Amino acid sequence: MEFLYEKVAYLKGLADGLDVDESTKEGKLLMSIVDILEDFADAIVELDEDTEEITEYVEAMDEDLANVEDDFYEDEQNDEIDFVEIECPNCHEDVYIDGDLLYGDDADAVCPRCHEIVDFEQIGDYCHDDPDEDE
Ligand SMILES: [Zn+2]
């Protein structure tokens, strides 16, 4: 954005070369227009620098977030949540339940459809594929 200063400097040089000065009404107007253009150049250059700073900051945050996401999804994969498709005995919808909730010590799970606490243990291995089991 530094080229804005060059353009204003060019206008100032032009005014000087054309003998435009504040001795006439028009000269006064033109000189103040050039001054105001310089103020605009200042403001735009400042905005441009601020934007560049913010852009760098956002890029750094984006990089940090990507690292956090990588760590997060890595952890999630290590947990190996095994979802089991099962029919809810309350609303009879096929829902996916965390297998740990079905077969752990405290085997009560909440149906994601009807939000009833359902004892899925009652229906045992229903829908749970076990390759060792005889068909
Ligand atoms: Zn249900």
Report on the architecture of this protein.
Strand 1 and strand 2 form a beta hairpin. The chain has 2 domains: about 5-80; about 85-125. It has 3 helices and 4 strands; from the N terminus they run ααββαββ. The longest helix has about 55 residues, at about 25-80. It has helices at about 5-15, 25-80, 100-105; strands at about 85, 95-100, 110, 115-120. Helix 1 (about 5-15) packs antiparallel against helix 2. The chain is about 55% helix and about 10% strand. The strands form 2 sheets. The chain has a two-stranded antiparallel sheet with strand order 1-2. A two-stranded antiparallel sheet has the order 3-4. It is mainly alpha-helical. Bound molecules: zinc ion (ZN).
Keyword list:
single chain; 135 residues; mainly alpha; 2 domains; two-stranded antiparallel ribbon; 3 helices; 56% helix; binds zinc ion
What topology emerges from the helices and strands here?
Elements lengths: L2 H15 L7 H55 L3 E5 L6 E5 H5 L4 E3 L6 E3 L16
Antiparallel strand pairs: 1-2, 3-4
Helix pairs in contact: 1-2
The structure holds zinc ion (ZN).
Zinc ion binds next to loops.
